[in-house]
Specification:
Layout lengths: L9 H9 L13 H13 L3 E5 L4 H16 L3 E5 L12 H9 L4 E5 L6 H9 L3 E5 L13 E3 L15 H13 L7 H15 L4
Parallel strand pairs: 1-2, 1-3, 3-4, 4-5
Length: 203
């Protein structure tokens, strides 16, 4: 893994692995404050929440990270993962309508959603709120949602643009838990975030 990233000597490996660089404040991600506010509101009001992930390692890891955090905070939360052969990648209108019909009030996407413009419009029509967390490149038009958290947004000042989906989910739980340095959450969820980072081939 290290060699694939250009780390070719024991000295380079030691330098990288021994580094104790501080993690960036999660609130530097655009809309993080809005995401936290809407999720906390849902927990306080005992609303039904669904985490909509993806079927790859990054999406499953991101879903697990966020589910564990929200469950620990007392949220009424479920997970939905599409199948590679069935539902395909990302939100679709059929899923949005199904979730609304089942009484969910808030959908949080992880590792997808940044291009779900039509699906977000459909959700709004049905009274279903969306919080989007993703790491893929956005289109010129962002989905209309309560929050759109993606380091690749042109107006996002977050200094490191190459988080995977689980990395963005990790930053969200740091904000939810008030752990702005990430020092506590890294001990609980760092392994999942690391596995997702390697599997998704991001820096």
């Amino acid at each position: 893994v290290l060699a694939a990233r250009g780390v070719n000597t024991p000295q380079q490996a030691h330098s990288l692995l021994a580094e104790q660089a501080e993690l960036s404040d999660p609130y530097r991600l655009k809309d993080m404050d809005k995401a936290v506010e809407r999720i906390r509101q849902a927990i306080e009001n005992e609303e039904s929440i669904v985490i909509f992930g993806d079927y790859d390692v990054d999406g499953v890891s991101a879903t697990a990270i966020l589910y564990e955090c929200l469950s620990n905070q007392g949220a009424h939360v479920r997970c939905k993962l599409p199948s590679r052969d069935g539902g395909g990648y990302g939100l679709n209108e059929e899923t949005v309508r199904s979730l609304a019909a089942k009484g969910y009030k808030l959908v949080i996407t992880v590792d997808n959603g940044i291009t779900a413009v039509a699906e977000a419009d459909c959700a709004a029509e049905l009274g279903l709120d969306l919080v989007i967390t993703d790491h893929h490149q956005p289109r010129p038009q962002l989905p209309k949602a309560c929050a759109v958290v993606d380091p690749h947004r042109q107006d996002c000042p977050y200094p490191f643009k190459y988080l995977c989906g689980a990395g963005v989910a990790f930053k969200l739980i740091c904000a939810m838990e008030g752990d702005l340095s990430g020092e506590e959450m890294i001990w609980h969820f760092g392994e999942l975030a690391a596995i997702a980072t390697v599997a998704d081939i991001v820096e």
